[in-house]
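Hi D.,

Good news: the full-assembly prediction came through. Inputs first.
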Amino acid sequence: MDVLVWVTEATWPACVEAVRAHVPADATVTLLHVADDDIAGAASGAFAGLLGRSGQDRARRVTELVATSGQDLLEAAAEDLGRAATTVQRHGRVEREVVQAVVDLDADLLILARDGDLRRLGPHSLGPAARFVVDHAPCATLLVWPGSTPEVGSLPPPPH
Amino acid sequence: MGAAGPVVAVVLLLGVLGFAVVRPRGLPEAVAAVPAAAVVVALGLVSPHAAWAETQKLLPVVAFLVAVLALSHLCDAEGLFAAAGDLMARLSRGRPQRLLGAVFVVASAVTAVLSLDATVVLLTPVVFATAARSGVRPKPFVYACTHLANSASLLLPVSNLTNLLAFTASGLSFSRFGALMALPWVAVVAVEYVVLRLFFRTDLGVALPRGLRAGRARRGASGPTSTPVSRLSVALVGATLAGFVVASVLGVPPAWAAAAGAAVLAARALAQRRTTARALLAAANLPFAVFVLGLGVIVVAVVRSGLGGVVGGFLPTGSSFLDLLAVAGVAAVAANLLNNLPAVLLLTPLALAAGGTPALLAALIGVNVGPNLTYVGSLATLLWRRVLRDHGADAELAEFSALAAWSVPTALVGGVGALWVSLAMIGA
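Then the structure:
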């Protein structure tokens, strides 16, 4: 069984916890982080806006920072996981890269965390990227709550 | 030159801007701007006398720019930016919405005082690292920096090169400029805050579990290692900034205060080996100063070619809220079509002639807030995106444009409204 874990800032501990709780010991685990090209894009756009006052090396530094921080995140997740796992880093449009990684690895299960407005349960408690991945991932997905799961009492009253 | 004159002037301007964005082989942008300026003089589009007059007018501005760029570099060498990162991380304690507030305060202050260059070049990487270290999603904070670099640059003449260029022509004092622009600055920053907070509510809604936050912060993940900042450095920077105002009250050009502050900090940083003369010279970026002088001469040619009359025809002469908004709108469009530097060079004399100081300040709101739509101007954006693709990144920028589509018009209306109130309270 090949399991792909989508590691994102802030919500990765919940995914790691889910691997511990639900993934069999003989499964192969891959941790994936996707660096969002828009971040480096926005920064380098702002650098370009300064014309020659910025220095092109500086713009490249932001791209490197994005890659390094993704690597740090993967290392932290791998360390926290405490079992053998491969780490993979990709970059591009996040939601599409995640789906493509599922295809490339031929994964059987994708684990991801909710990342929307978690105080108001409903459609918006799933952010746009997670929504896209849940809709398009060509395998079973395990969607976990970061932090504690909501209580049944949080159910809205039925419509009249 | 006859009918070809205007075409030649505009083509040269576009060519010089294109060169400045692409910078083939890393050549300084002055390499294109200076010969182009010589061509417009040789063709008789600008008389040598007018070219020299423009250069003389711009010299104090570029001297100020050089001093402020050096000052930012020295603040970085003193560890002030890394310290600001630590402060933001401490204040927010891993909570994304608090971090956004901290980033807004720091980025607005840095932009106002040390110019947008400092925010883009020095603060943005620190903010990214701070967000990563705090375990939150970095995107909203990076966008906050890149947006505020433009929109929070309204407050002082030093905040943006566009302000320096308009300020010199306006005849306003340093403190009066600041007094008139304080309210628009606050209004625009407030608009940006609300727009970013709503736009990125998903990314700002998730934080690391409490127990993990301290551990991540200790790792110092990919953050710049911060060195303790001496109180003397902070005091010296503070004194330089106070010097801007004091110099202005005494009738001394504030560039002298910037130069004096930069000189003292430079002597200290060089003695303590926190920077090198070479790095300092590179930060001061003298070729860019030469580029601005060349650009000034080319824009004079564009104005005289008749394009000035055309753009001037769009500018209303009154100073009602709607008149000022129209001026800001024209300025924002010009900044996006060309780039904010030629836009401000072009619009300063036209706005002053049409509606005096109120129109000039409205035009500044346009050229400063407007670039959040395309950053470099639309033509240059096409070139820049090609450069970006060559580096292996292909940002879609759909999100970027959607964000700007909300923030730019709202900030323009809010900023101009606040300017109108300022003018009514303080008087032009």
